């Protein structure tokens, strides 16, 4: 069974203080690893897909990286508007669905 | 495209009443997913459909929950009878055949059962 564990559960940063969120996963053959952002009162919004170890994707202050066991979402010089819950999900080769982690709630203080 | 459309946005009902949540997926998407989100249990997959056919309903809590997808542009999730522990935010999501673009989620229905 596919498993996804995200850490930490919550992260508080000062504006400009860079950090990383972790997503550890177990799958029987990875088809794709996804990062989503969820704002309060809204549904998750797709950010990135990573397919294989060594791959990286960037969008503004966010960079996602992937190894065979985990993915990191690096946030460089975050701003208050980056505050949200970030969800990681994996889609295995034999599954017709994604398995989601519980998310990391990021708060960036000005 | 207006995205995935869910209705209602909020629903407050009394215990024992029937509740119906509705979803219109993105046109052209062939997979539809119903999720439930709570603080305690996070995002739980209830059921998903491929080409209007239910594929996996192992996440449906019990027989009080049922879901249908009569055509490619409409799905319902019904709870009968509702209980206070069903209170949660219910999301509908859809996706196309390309795995790489992830799911598109609706804005959710916040259900409160009193």
Q: Quaternary state, please?
A: heterodimer
Query: Count of DSSP E strands of chain B?
Result: 11
Q: Compute the number of helices of chain A.
A: 0
- Average pLDDT metric of chain A: 95
Shape of chain B: globular
Distance between the termini of chain A: 41 Å
Q: How helical, in percent, are the residues of chain A?
A: under 10%
- Regions with little confidence, pLDDT below 50 for 5+ residues of chain A: none
* Gyration radius from CA atoms of chain B, angstroms: 13 Å
Number of helices of chain B: 0
Describe this structure in words.
The complex is a heterodimer of chains A (110) and B (114). Chain A contains no helices and eleven strands. In chain A, a hairpin with a 6-residue loop joins strand 9 (84-92) and strand 10 (99-100). Chain A is an all-beta fold and 110 residues long. Chain A is globular, with a radius of gyration of 13 Å. In chain A, strands 2, 4, 5, 9, 10 and 11 form a six-stranded mixed sheet that branches. Chain B has 114 residues and is mainly beta. Chain B is built from no helices and eleven strands. Chain B has strands spanning 5-7, 10-13, 19-24, 31-38, 42-50, 53-56, 65-71, 74-79, 88-95, 104-105, 109-113. In chain B, strands 2, 4, 5, 6, 9, 10 and 11 form a seven-stranded mixed sheet that branches. The radius of gyration of chain B is 13 Å and the shape is globular. The model of chain B has no long low-confidence stretch (mean pLDDT 94). Classes of the chains: A mainly beta (110), B mainly beta (114).
Q: What keyword list fits this structure?
A:
heterodimer; A: 110 residues; mainly beta; 6-stranded mixed beta sheet; 5-stranded antiparallel beta sheet; 11 strands; 0% helix; 59% strand; globular; B: 114 residues; 7-stranded mixed beta sheet; 4-stranded antiparallel beta sheet
